[in-house]
Amino acid sequence: MLILSLDTTTRGGSAAVLQDDRVLALIEGDGTRTHGERLPGELERVLVEAGQVLPAVDLLAVASGPGAFTGLRIGMAAMQGLALVTGRPVVGVSALDALALTAFEQLRIPRARIGCWTDAARGEVFAALYDVAETTAGGPALTPLTPPEAGLPKYIWSSWQAFHAEPVVMAGDAAIRYREHLTGVAQVLPHPLLAPAVARLGHRLAQVDGPHLPHLLQPLYVRRPDVERPRASSSPTP
CA 178 to CA 23: how far, in whole Å? Predict the structure, then answer.
């Protein structure tokens, strides 16, 4: 299975080509330019670095959020366009799931409790907490302990108190930025490139759910996009 994957949930993001679980090529996006300026050029470049061509790709996988609205929509639209052109299935993957999987792979231990925080702007974080454990087949198993959510770091961390009996490893750009709120945390990992984990999780989803059509791809916003807020706030109260 040849998989082309893309993450645009952060300003830099990443793209990768995997042959099953093996990474053939991985590039980090140029965070000094917008995703609109860089795509689909970065997808073309990662295919060249992998020595592959688009018609050879079997599956497209894209991070579906949460993340910045504009980058998220551009990335998903780019992959939907490729799916329509090639006739290949496209799968959306939670960026928080991908972050938890990547962090677990970095730890190299059989089991961990992993909290994922990514920057949600306005002093907030996108967050989810997981138990992750190695399995005998099919890769690590992710067990969500909390649903994806957005909120102020101190309130998110406080709401996770029931899970603090076990050491928590934190990962993500917002875990580093708001580390002062993470009392008693075991370790804080940097924000990794997520495209390889997006590909691996997308492969799993495709095996379980079957083909995914481009028009069925849906963003995972967690909170309402900023562009909708003025309209919502100006609506008359019933």
Answer: 31
Alpha carbon distance 149, 125 (integer Å) = 8
DSSP SS3 for 60: strand
Q: Are strands 111-119 and 22-28 parallel, antiparallel or unpaired?
A: unpaired
Task: Give the pTM.
Answer: 0.91
CA distances from 29 to 7, 105, 121, 143, 216 (A): 9, 22, 20, 29, 26
**How do residues 28-51 score in pLDDT, each as one tens digit?**
999 899 999 999 999 999 999 999
pLDDT digits (tens, 9 = 90+) for 81-138: 999 999 999 999 999 999 999 999 999 999 999 999 999 999 999 999 999 999 987 7
Q: Which domains are seen in the chain, by residue range?
A: 2-94+193-227 (3.30.420.40), 96-189 (3.30.420.40)
